[in-house]
Amino acid sequence: MNFVWAMLARNFAVECRSLRVSFTRMVLQPAIYLFVFGYVVGRMLPAGNSGNYAAVMAPGVVAISLMSAPYLVVGSSILSGFYFRTMEAWLLSPVGVRALLLALLASGTLYGMASAAVVVGLIWIILGIVPENWLLIAYFCFFGSLLFSLLAVVVLLAPATPKQGQDIFSLLMMPMTFFGCTFYSFAMLIPPFDSVALLLPTTYLSEGLRAAYATGGGSLPTHWVVAGLAATTLLLVPLADWVVARRLRNFTW
User: What is the CB-side half-sphere exposure of residue 45 using CA atoms within 13 A?
Assistant: First the structure.
């Protein structure tokens, strides 16, 4: 556990040294999304039974932060370890590769939850929308952050080098952001686009967060989303464990 705490302290120190970048990433970018699409556009575009467009897109911005923040932390640790050769130092430390995996997941999950908390506060300040089910918000923030932390580990370490994994994750980010029901609800889609959306994890995360905000509820059954998110996250744990052991146990980069 000392190694995990050391990695968390290291990531916190890195964020403190780049406060401008962290502020832009955690506060400024989501605030712009919420102001432009929620406050300005949202007052002009009705969204059926959900009230207005602001109520539909705001939970989606939380989902975007839960997707991008864990990847930034986990990805920066893995990529800096690859490019600047710090991975050797981690692997030469008297800990197993599972301790390294736990440290990466802890960092990504905590940073994702912190980023989501900031966005939830921004939604309240800018749009005046407050969640009605805080327990569901906490649930989706935790499992969403953990899921995308696991996904970042798998995608970055499964290929021959993290550089190849970085390219793959960059390709995945765009469809998950724009086709995963973040800026619109699943009910707004028509075939065959609704089938495509069901293949993306951000769809379930966004709809679950909409149910937590009780803005007319999500378009997908909440209990299915709750169970499916937990099941998917748990299935990714052994996959991430296998990928880390396979790639780092015999380190050849």
Answer: 15
Rounded to an integer, what distance in angstroms lies between the CA atom of residue 100 and that of residue 59? Answer: 32
Is the Cβ–Cβ distance between 197 and 203 less than 8 Å?
yes
d(CA 108, CA 74): 6
pLDDT digit string (tens) for 35-79?
Answer: 998 888 877 765 554 457 888 899 999 999 999 999 988 988 888
Sign of the torsion angle spanned by Cα atoms 224, 175, 66, 184 = negative
| pTM higher than 0.85 | yes
Per-residue pLDDT of 170-212, as tens digits, reads: 889 999 999 999 998 898 888 888 899 999 999 999 999 999 9
| In the chain, domain spans | 2-10+22-248
